[in-house]
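Regression test attached.
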Amino acid sequence: MNERLILVTNDDGYASKGLAAAIEVARSFGRVVAVAPETPQSGMSQAITMYNPLYLRKVRAEEGVEVYSFSGTPVDCVKMAFDYLLRGERIDLMISGINHGSNSAVNVLYSGTMGAAIEGSFYNCPAVGLSLDDHGADADFDAAVLYGKRILGDLLSGPITLPLCLNVNVPVGRPEELRGIRLCRQNRGFWREEFFRHEDPRGREYFWLTGAFVNREPEACDTDEWALRNGYVAVVPVQTDLTDYAQLRNLGRFYPSAADGEPETRK
Amino acid sequence: MNERLILVTNDDGYASKGLAAAIEVARSFGRVVAVAPETPQSGMSQAITMYNPLYLRKVRAEEGVEVYSFSGTPVDCVKMAFDYLLRGERIDLMISGINHGSNSAVNVLYSGTMGAAIEGSFYNCPAVGLSLDDHGADADFDAAVLYGKRILGDLLSGPITLPLCLNVNVPVGRPEELRGIRLCRQNRGFWREEFFRHEDPRGREYFWLTGAFVNREPEACDTDEWALRNGYVAVVPVQTDLTDYAQLRNLGRFYPSAADGEPETRK
């Protein structure tokens, strides 16, 4: 049997502690190629770089692990890996992370970590976004590494229905303090933003985004937010058909549906 | 009755022709405030700026129309409008666009135009992303303006179920050449990328993303791609629960579901 090939990326950049933790997870399952952003890319969502040239740089290579930095977004890194660097090779699994900070609830939409994981799943490769609910420089990744290995082991243990993309969020704590894994749905919530407002050294007013997450359904115990707040590792499978089928029916009072059959000329 | 307030943004920047077209659409329904990016932000998805200060600049004000530029992403512009500039005011509707280029199918995920529209819908404001399937500098926006007015008129004609976010894509052509409006679902497809590879003036190799969209279901006549290719204005309502409920059931063989009821200690 050929050795497995695992692609690793993240949004915090190639030198982050979380990338090293993700490589540790991946290394126990096969050969690892990491292509990660040159600079921090938190909050970059599924952005792609259209109007700038991008530079690829080999950072290091050691037994079974190669690390590249790429000067674009997390999604650019994934495209670079699948469409150029590893073109023609079979990539068995992709890990994005381990992110410094959680990506539960609506954060899945803003997150560069999850943008990359979703992109990986477009290539028919099982993709796992791993995030730790701790932004600190001294964050303890042990539990995230342990649970990451467990989840990858489960996925690689048998056939997988594709596409598969998982949003995995790990609470703060030592491995023995966590209460296990829970399958969840994405919590409904939103960010109540504030703009921090100040003057720069030249007297020009500037704004800096800040805010707090508001959970619209704190009582619901089937969401990722609930699991995370209650000591569980939250696993949300992610899909990308954004069609709002309920609104599609509502809007039928205004417009004909393309699904209604043969087109006719109608204004 | 108070005059309506319409927020306008885009991803091509405050000076683009498409923004002027969107303002023309909005202007026929009320007072317009536009907050658009200082620089082009195509492909920025739902990215937010976390690590930089942002500058707001009033570009112009005339009867019923104010235009601001903001040095962030499209989503930053929306947050600036709702959370600072227009805080406390009721915004009746938001338009993002008119984009130079279509945002059908999976492009909804990469598009800064649609990132902004989705963000607007988070504020319980009906939000419409408008895109024209033409990247050219001399693109003819007449049909997009006409259909934009028609769709806004319909939405504002009665009660709306919220949240509501529409992804509207208009084909190339004179208004009289288009075949009308169709409600559609998001087409399944992907981008087959190529990296254009070259050397910069200093001999360093660089990459530039390029590619072609591949429609995985060209025969399906209920998708936005089909409608657009067949001369219809494609309307896809968009939602943001990315939970993959089918995979949630599949993965039940590995992990307990948070929905299964009272938590128990389980590793």
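Expected vs. actual: identical. The helical segments of chain A are 17-27, 74-85, 107-110, 112-122, 142-156, 224-229, 245-250.
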